[in-house]
Structure formats: structure tokens, C-alpha cells
UniProtKB/TrEMBL annotation:
Gene3D superfamilies: Medium-chain alcohol dehydrogenases, catalytic domain, NAD(P)-binding Rossmann-like Domain. This is Zinc-binding dehydrogenase. It comes from the Bacteria. Residues 8-347 form the Enoyl reductase (ER) domain. Transmembrane segments: none annotated. One of its GO terms (molecular function) is oxidoreductase activity. It comes from Plastoroseomonas arctica. InterPro entries: ADH-like_C, ADH-like_N, ER, GroES-like_sf, NAD(P)-bd_dom_sf, Zn_alcohol_dh. Keywords: Oxidoreductase.
Length: 349
């Protein structure tokens, strides 16, 4: 089979790999959809030879990209509980594997494992940008028959990440939430928060993305490139600020603004990966009783809960995707995605 591999300096290659065979406790999936995640761009843009000290296991070389896998079980290895996997089952993948036995792993938070190096599929373990993918059976999350494989791919990372953050902030119909960045995660946040009843203020420097946010339920949109975002949010909230803010872009300026735009007793959540932020603690946090939290993706129960929420409310997650690609179009696909002006892309296999 062939798989997409990031080779550095915004280049990639379609390389040959042997078809995987499941080992003990593993399954092989026939991929149906593999989404393009904003976090992919970190590896896509890396300089050749650069290795970031992440504290997770060193990746095999080369490594297949794709951390939003969705497909059907094609083969089952020895030792797999039939309740976890059956041939032909439609499944998503929770794309992490830790020690499997610590408290974090046992509650579905394998990415938080403190006992062993964590495998992140699509990063330091083979991901979904290929015809087949081999994963431990304990990473599988069922995909409801009413959901497309494309929707399942979104839930497997970007949409699931937004849902996990919104649930941590306990979003409700009483809240006004400002969502900074309307890329795949931010736009998912806009769609889901609106479905939860919140009033959404969407922010982005791309007019195209702001138009999409409006279509996905944003009550108001703000372009920080041509106005003061914090002042605009306060004007829209009777001078008080937003109850909640969600920062998805990783921009240092956006992170500061997300904290400053809070009302007294408000909560800000960071989900954008990487980068640094400097906050003036007294005026921006301490004297407004602000809460600042971070949310890293979701658990396996959280992924299943997100999928059920989408099913129950008939949320059109498929509409997140603006571009569908074949694997042999990967170079074109990531060159477009790298511009960060359009919506989400997905490889159909």
C-alpha cells in the first residue's frame, strides 16, 4: 500500500509500505476517510532534520500521516475481545496509545499516560493517510450507522477536540462564547456551541472563514485584522465581556485577547497547540477572577459522547469539509490547507 509521509520544509511523499498484519490485541482497518488536521501542519512545516522534544516515543522513519482515521475493521489479531471489534464494523480511532493500565489509560485518557511513552497515530505511529491502518483494538470507537465516514474522521480529532473543550467549560444557552480562530477546530466549536444554545461570536482574520462561521451558527463575527477584537467583544456584550472564550489558533495575540475579552468570573480555554503567551496577571486575570484552562483533545468516552451528541441533534458535521482528495493529490491538498483560508480537507479511500 501507499501512505502519505511528511518529509519536511512543506514537502511530502507518497511512499510504499507493506500491508499491515494485526498482532496480539490489534486490528487492521480498511480506511474510508482520513481527515486533514490543523496539527498536521506542524509536521508538514518542520525544517528537514528537525526533531521536536515532545517527550513521546521517537517515531519510526518514515511515518504515515493522518490523525483523523475512520473506516471498517478488515482483520482481527489474536487476543481481541469480540466486544471491541468485529470484521466489518464501522469505527473511528482514538488516536493514542499509552501503557493501557494506569488510571489515565483505564479511563480513556491514554494521551495523558505518565507510565510509558505515548504513541500518537499520525505523528510517531502510522496514521490514516493510507489504505490500511493497524491499531490496538482498545483505541476503537463505534461509528453510528447514521454518520458518514467523513463525519467520523472529523470527530476523531478536530470536532472531538472542540466538543471536549466546550464540555469542560459547561457551555449552555445562558452563555456568550467568543471563539478565536475559525479553522477546523474553531468552526467545529462554533457549530457545536450554537447547538448547545450559546450565542457565538466568531473571530478570524480570513473573511472566507468568517462567512463559513456565520453559516455554522455564529451570531456575530469579528475580523481582528481591522478592529480591536477585545473592544468589539465588549461592545457586543454590554461592556461586560464574554462569559467564555475558546482559543484555537495558537496565535499569541489571540491568546492574550481571549483572556482580556472575558467578563468578570469568565473562563478562557486554550486548545491551540504550541507557542507561548505572556499575560499581565493582575489586570487580565487576578482582578477579574478569571479562570484559564487548557484542553487537549478528548477521551474515548468523550469521543463516543461527541458522536452521540451529533447524531441526536442532526448536526451536519460533513459540511465542515470543503475539499475531498485522493491520496495521490496529497501535495496539492496540503499546499492548499497550509494557506489556512479554506475549510477542512479529507482523503477518501
Amino acid at each position: 500500500m501507499q501512505g502519505v509521509v511528511f518529509t519536511g520544509d512543506r514537502e511530502l511523499a507518497l511512499m510504499d509500505f507493506p500491508d499491515p498484519t494485526p498482532g496480539f490485541g490489534e486490528v487492521v482497518l480498511e480506511m474510508k476517510a482520513s481527515g486533514m488536521c490543523g496539527s498536521d501542519l506542524h509536521k508538514y512545516r518542520q525544517s528537514k532534520g528537525f526533531r521536536q522534544a515532545t517527550g513521546i516515543a521517537a517515531p519510526p522513519t518514515p511515518t504515515i500521516a493522518g490523525r483523523e482515521p475512520c473506516g471498517v475493521v478488515a482483520a482481527i489479531g489474536p487476543g481481541v475481545d469480540a466486544r471491541l471489534a468485529q470484521v466489518g464494523a464501522r469505527v473511528m480511532v482514538h488516536h493514542y496509545q499509552g501503557c493501557t493500565t494506569c488510571n489515565h489509560c483505564r479511563t480513556g485518557w491514554q494521551q495523558l499516560c505518565q507510565k510509558s511513552a505515548v504513541t500518537v497515530y499520525g505523528n510517531n505511529g502510522h496514521g490514516g493517510h493510507a489504505k490500511y491502518m493497524c491499531v490496538p483494538a482498545n483505541t476503537l470507537v463505534p461509528l453510528d450507522e447514521s454518520l458518514s465516514f467523513v463525519a467520523g474522521a472529523a470527530i476523531s480529532c478536530g470536532t472531538g477536540t472542540a466538543y471536549g473543550a466546550l464540555r469542560r467549560m459547561k457551555v449552555s444557552g445562558y452563555d456568550t462564547i467568543a471563539i478565536f480562530g475559525q479553522g477546523p477546530v474553531g468552526l467545529s466549536g462554533t457549530q457545536l456551541a450554537a447547538a448547545m444554545g450559546a450565542r457565538v461570536i466568531a473571530l478570524d482574520i480570513s473573511p472566507e472563514r468568517l462567512e463559513r462561521a456565520k453559516a455554522f451558527g455564529a451570531a456575530e463575527t469579528i475580523n481582528p485584522s481591522n478592529m480591536d477584537a477585545v473592544a468589539a467583544i465588549r461592545e457586543l456584550t454590554h461592556g461586560e465581556g464574554a462569559d467564555l472564550t475558546l482559543e484555537t489558533s495558537s496565535s499569541p495575540e489571540a491568546r492574550v485577547a481571549a483572556v482580556q475579552a472575558l467578563k468578570v468570573w469568565g473562563t478562557c480555554c486554550f486548545v491551540g497547540e504550541g507557542g507561548k503567551v505572556t499575560i499581565d496577571v493582575s489586570p487580565d486575570m487576578l482582578r477579574r477572577q478569571a479562570t484559564v484552562i487548557a484542553s487537549w483533545t478528548f477521551s474515548t468516552p468523550g469521543q463516543a459522547e461527541c458522536a452521540q451528541f451529533i447524531v441526536d441533534r442532526s448536526i451536519k458535521v460533513d459540511a465542515l469539509f470543503t475539499d475531498e482528495w485522493r491520496l495521490d493529490q496529497a501535495a496539492e491538498a496540503y499546499a492548499l490547507f497550509d494557506q489556512q483560508r479554506t475549510g477542512k480537507g479529507v482523503f477518501l479511500l
